[in-house]
Amino acid sequence: MKYLMFVCTDTEPDADPTAAPDIEEWVAERDGRGQRLMGSALGPASAATTVRVRDGELLLSDGPFAETKEVIVGFDLLECADLDEAIEVARAHPMAYSGRLELRPLVDLD
Predict the structure, then answer these.
(1) Residue 55 is part of which domain span?
(2) How does DSSP assign 23-36, residue by residue?
(3) Rounded distance between C-alpha atoms, residue 31 and residue 81, angstroms
(4) Could you tell me which residues are beta bridge partners of residue 8?
């Protein structure tokens, strides 16, 4: 099953950031196991463009639409047997210590 893992900042990081694993080791291990299909860091929220259409009119906004201190800074597309495995993958990610990770299953529209 595929999961999109949003990598986000958090206003309450772990008190001991030295406990976090190395990101390059996490990527290499997950890629080697076939659990990580792709991933990337994202540009800053200030570079975002929000697109909406209302009453047929295109509305563009610079930056994130919502005011928040927690922002999405990256993503990983995971292939896991089930949610439990996806949680274990997320638990080992460095941002689980200094940020937060949101897992969402991909929906098969076929």
Answers:
(1) 2-105
(2) HHHHHHHHHHHT-E
(3) 15
(4) 72, 100
Do residues 97 and 13 lie in contact, with contact meaning Cβ atoms separated by under 8 Å?
yes
d(CA 39, CA 92): 15
Q: Are 59 and 52 in contact (CB under 8 A)?
A: yes
Residue 35 half-sphere exposure, CB side, CA atoms within 13 Å?
Answer: 20
* Residue 110 is assigned to a structural domain of this protein: no
Q: How far apart are CA 40 and CA 67, in angstroms?
A: 23
Q: Which among 103, 4, 8, 3 is positioned nearest to 64, based on CA atoms?
A: 8
3-state DSSP percent of the chain in helix, strand and coil, to 5? 25, 35, 35
Mean pLDDT calculated for residue range 73-85: 97
Question: What are the residue ranges of helices labelled H in the chain?
Answer: 23-33, 83-91, 95-98
Per residue in 30-74, pLDDT (tens digit) is 999 999 999 999 998 888 888 889 999 999 988 765 666 778 999
Q: The CATH number of the domain where 48 resides is what?
A: 3.30.70.1060
